[in-house]
Amino acid sequence: MKALNQKIDALEIKLKDFIQKWKEVVDRNDLLHNENEQLKEKLAKVTNKKEENRAVSAERKTIDQKHIQKIQSDLDQYITQLDQCIEHIKTRMNG
Questions:
Q1: How far apart are CA 46 and CA 52, in angstroms?
Q2: Pairwise CA distance, residues 13 & 29, whole Å
Q3: Of all residues in the chain, what percent are helix, strand and coil, respectively (each to 5)?
């Protein structure tokens, strides 16, 4: 009977240790789960930021292209006006 009581006591101790370790594992798991959720949120923010940056970049390219086209158009107009002035000067000098 004494041996049985010792085995039961040993099992109780092992069971208490197991329960304590189980609680520690559950607590650690909760912490990791929370950290994982926070990381998911950060990743979502970074992903959204990248998408916003891409959209802004595409918009800037469109604006830049519009500016370039405007500048080219203005330059073409100035060149045409200069050509007309040169022709006018040539005509006056020759005539």
A1: 10
A2: 24
A3: 100, 0, 0
What is the CA 18 to chain-centroid distance, rounded?
44
In which residue are the tokens 């045409």 written? 80
Q: Say how many CA atoms lie within 13 Å of 16 toward its Cβ.
A: 6
**Structure-derived torsion over alpha carbons of residues 50, 51, 56, 58, reported in degrees to the nearest 10:** 110
Whose tokens are 């500048």? That residue is: 71
Q: Which residue has the tokens 């992903």?
A: 47
Query: What tokens were used for 64?
Result: 């830049």
> Which of 79, 81, 60 lies closest to 71, judged by CA?
79
**Predicted confidence pLDDT, tens digits, the chain (95 residues):** 888 899 999 999 999 999 999 999 999 999 999 999 999 999 999 888 888 888 778 778 777 888 888 889 999 999 999 999 899 888 888 86
Q: How far apart are the first and last CA of the chain?
A: 138
